[in-house]
Automatic annotation (TrEMBL):
NCBIfam families the record matches: exoDNase_III, xth
UniProt name for this protein: Exodeoxyribonuclease III
Main EC class the enzyme belongs to: hydrolase
Residue span, Endonuclease/exonuclease/phosphatase domain: 6-250
Keyword Cell wall biogenesis/degradation carried by entry: no
Record key words, sorted: Hydrolase, Magnesium, Metal-binding
Organism of this sequence: Nocardia amamiensis
Cofactor: Mg(2+)
Length: 258
C-alpha cells in the first residue's frame, strides 16, 4: 500500500534546518512530492544529504529564476523514468513540474503560480494553467499529480472565503479550471475521503493567528486518475502540533493508496 505525500517546503534549505529532515526520517510516505525548493540541483542535494544518504532518491526540476519555484520527487526506490516539464516552451525551465514513472504508477509534483488578481502575474498563471490543463487532460493510465495548486476549489476549501471572492486563488476562472480537470476524469482524492467538511486545510499564513485559529486554505491536492483514483484509502494533513514547530507554512498531505 503506497503512501504518497505532497508538501510545499517554502525553501528546502531553510526547511531542512527546521524539521524537514526529521520528518523525512519518520514519515510512512514512499513518495514525497515537494514544491518551492527555491534552489539549484546541487543546493537541494546538499540540503537533503542526510535523507539521500539514508536511501531517498531525488528527482528535481531546477528553477531558472533564482529563489523561486523548483519542484522535486523523493522516492524510496529509483524511478524508471523522469520527465521535467510538460512540453511548454514558456514554462519548460520554470521548475514547476516534474514527473517520475515507476513500474505501476506515474507520480507528478506540480507548483502552480500564486498569482495576483488583475496583474500580469495572474495572466501568467492563466497561461500556465491552460498548458498544464491540456497536458493533464491528455494523460491516461494510473497517474497522480500532487502539489501546491494555489487554488481553493470551493467554499469548503478556505476559512475566509467571503473575504477572498476577488482574491487570486479563489477567482471564478481558477475554480472553474479545477472543475474542468475533475470533469476530464481526475479525482480530488482528499476531498473524496473528507466529504462535506471544511478543509482539511494545508496552508496557513504566518501572519496573525491563522495557524492557531485554523484559518487556512486547502490548496495542496492529490488529483488522481485511472484505477489509482479508486484506491485512495485514507488521507491526513500532517499538521504541526504548535506554531513554533512548523518548518513550512504548508503541512504535508499524505494519501494511502491500496
Amino acid at each position: 500500500m503506497p503512501y504518497i505525500s505532497t508538501v510545499n517546503v517554502n525553501g528546502v534549505r531553510a526547511a531542512a534546518g527546521k524539521g524537514l529532515l526529521a520528518w523525512l526520517a519518520v514519515t510512512e510516505a514512499d513518495i514525497v512530492c515537494v514544491q518551492e525548493t527555491r534552489a539549484t540541483d546541487e543546493q537541494v542535494r546538499a540540503a537533503l544529504a542526510p535523507a539521500l544518504d539514508a536511501g531517498w532518491q531525488l528527482s528535481h526540476a531546477e528553477p531558472e529564476s533564482k529563489g523561486r519555484a523548483g519542484v522535486g520527487i523523493l522516492s524510496r526506490r529509483a524511478p524508471r523514468a523522469v520527465r521535467i516539464g510538460f512540453g511548454s516552451i514558456e514554462f519548460g525551465a520554470a521548475g514547476r513540474y516534474v514527473e517520475a514513472e515507476f513500474d505501476d504508477i506515474t507520480v507528478a509534483s506540480v507548483y502552480v503560480h500564486s498569482g495576483d488578481a488583475g496583474t500580469v502575474r495572474q495572466d501568467e498563471k492563466y497561461r500556465f494553467m491552460a498548458e498544464l490543463g491540456a497536458y493533464l487532460t491528455a494523460r491516461t493510465g494510473d497517474f497522480v499529480v500532487a502539489g501546491d495548486w494555489n487554488i481553493a476549489h470551493t467554499e469548503r476549501d478556505l476559512k475566509n472565503w467571503k473575504g477572498n471572492l476577488k482574491s487570486a486563488g479563489f477567482l471564478p476562472q481558477e475554480r472553474a479550471w479545477i472543475d474542468e480537470l475533475l470533469a476530464a476524469g481526475y479525482v480530488d482524492v482528499v476531498r473524496g475521503l473528507h466529504p462535506g467538511v471544511d478543509g482539511p486545510y494545508s496552508w496557513w499564513s504566518y501572519r496573525g493567528r491563522a495557524f492557531d485559529n485554523d484559518s487556512g486554505w486547502r490548496i495542496d491536492y492529490h488529483l488522481a486518475r485511472g484505477d489509482l483514483a479508486t484506491r485512495a484509502k485514507a488521507a491526513v494533513v500532517d499538521r504541526a502540533a504548535a506554531y513554533d514547530q512548523r518548518w513550512s507554512d504548508h503541512s504535508p498531505v499524505t494519501v494511502q493508496y491500496r
